[in-house]
Amino acid sequence: MAIVGEKGAMRQWSRSQRQCGRRIALVPTMGFLHEGHLSLVSEAKQRAEKVVVSIYVNPGQFAPGEDLDVYPRDFDGDVEKLKPLGVDIIFNPRDLYVRDSPEKNGAGHETWIRVENLEKPLCGGSRPLFFRGVATVVSKLLNIVEPDVVVFGKKDYQQWRVLSRMVRDLDFGVEVVGCKLVREADGLAMSSRNVRLTATERKNALAIFHSLKRAEELVRSGETDSSVLIEQAVSAISHAGGRVDYASIVDQETLQSVDKVASPSVFAIAAWFGSVRLLDNVELPNS
Amino acid sequence: MAIVGEKGAMRQWSRSQRQCGRRIALVPTMGFLHEGHLSLVSEAKQRAEKVVVSIYVNPGQFAPGEDLDVYPRDFDGDVEKLKPLGVDIIFNPRDLYVRDSPEKNGAGHETWIRVENLEKPLCGGSRPLFFRGVATVVSKLLNIVEPDVVVFGKKDYQQWRVLSRMVRDLDFGVEVVGCKLVREADGLAMSSRNVRLTATERKNALAIFHSLKRAEELVRSGETDSSVLIEQAVSAISHAGGRVDYASIVDQETLQSVDKVASPSVFAIAAWFGSVRLLDNVELPNS
């Protein structure tokens, strides 16, 4: 397993692999890897002969005042976790953006990709430039690594939809794979940010998962009214001391709110416990 | 010379060429080819073993009310012009955008690339979404054709700068080449739109070129005040019956206006003659 930091060296490796007819899979991450990430790597191994995992905390998707500075990092630990999985390359660039400087005279990075509809609902409400940063950095990674397949987790459901749409709309020559959300034994959605929860917050945060499970059961027993499903979730999470950013039932494809659970939809929640914002979602059964 | 209309077939051809180690150059055009385009093809031939010319009038860069419907087209004539030049593929897609439709439920094309600073001055003033459309379609073409080198004309100076910046910022693995503007025998900048000028407009439109030449001479003889240079041009073009959209002396890299011609700068003009908007520019000598 090699660690590559330079864009040029990364692309050169990929091109030489493809020249030999080998398929390459890319798993983009921000590091501090957990079982969720490792499941993406396993999926990547199934789909290509060569696997590249990128580890890069993308400043382009953090707004001022968000948690860029305290985002957890453990590069050496990540390397240890990836070693046994048969990963070929860890792409770990120091910085992917051209920085502005007085000498450059306003010629810093200024190109941004907008997925104009899908970026707006859900996380887009409280993080209006978040998906602009995500789409831009993933397009850079696709252009540098030139993979045949790219693997994302559906835990970041909107991100997966945004990036799938971007790949389709900009005709990137890559297959997009979305993998199932992975949970801790007790049900909490795995996230690099979970380590920033106190023990109490960690316990209380389970309310998100439980309320989603409850919604799933209610749908199975015939409830289709989104507002009823949302209300029980917001109430349960608030009762557990969480602050709901959003709790929305949306169409799986367009991410537009639905009043009734009739077509394929997803119940997506973002909620704060202490200083940590957590995401979770379930795809609801069609009634 | 083959004519390819499907994205998949186009990419497959490129990949098989690159698999064999051959370099590919792309010349993106909107067709109705003139000597300016053909000079780009010659440059492409110098730089790669295989040359793809795309012919696609990109609806994404025309605003409602602009001249999309009357933009000149002559596909058969273009084919005849390209045949003797040793072009390998004409990529002529019917439509590059996924269209929205009631069945698709709002899942039409929605991804756009913004080069946020360079898109604003010059043509960006009267055509605020023009470069958004240009950048987006060129990124699509780069992703479909996957060339090693892409060739643009510097007649569309801002477009060349915008696309160079996009390629740098998004890490496209392609070399960008800008080619010198080509003029008619009398000096008029070659443009597909020139055929839409009446004989009188055609003659009057030469005022653009003459005023740029005059500016160049004034700079050579020591004039560095942008406002003086601009004034003589606006006055000459207006006097010839043209309507100036902009006449700006800007830094070659940032496209920001400069008061004095001191650093590398370019004098760019857009002016209407009749119903036709013409562009022209000269890179000014450093004084």
Automatic annotation (TrEMBL), chains A, B:
Family recorded in the similarity comment: Belongs to the pantothenate synthetase family.
Protein name according to UniProt: Pantoate--beta-alanine ligase
GO molecular function, a single term: ATP binding
GO cellular component: cytosol
Keyword Protease: no
Source species of the chain: Selaginella moellendorffii
Top EC class of this enzyme: ligase
Origin superkingdom: Eukaryota
Biological process terms in GO annotation: pantothenate biosynthetic process
Matches recorded under CDD domains: PanC (cd00560)
SUPFAM superfamilies: Nucleotidylyl transferase
Catalytic reactions of this protein: (R)-pantoate + beta-alanine + ATP = (R)-pantothenate + AMP + diphosphate + H(+)
EC number: 6.3.2.1
InterPro entries: Cyt_trans-like, Pantoate_ligase, Pantoate_ligase_C, Rossmann-like_a/b/a_fold
Pathway in which this enzyme or protein is active: Cofactor biosynthesis; (R)-pantothenate biosynthesis; (R)-pantothenate from (R)-pantoate and beta-alanine: step 1/1
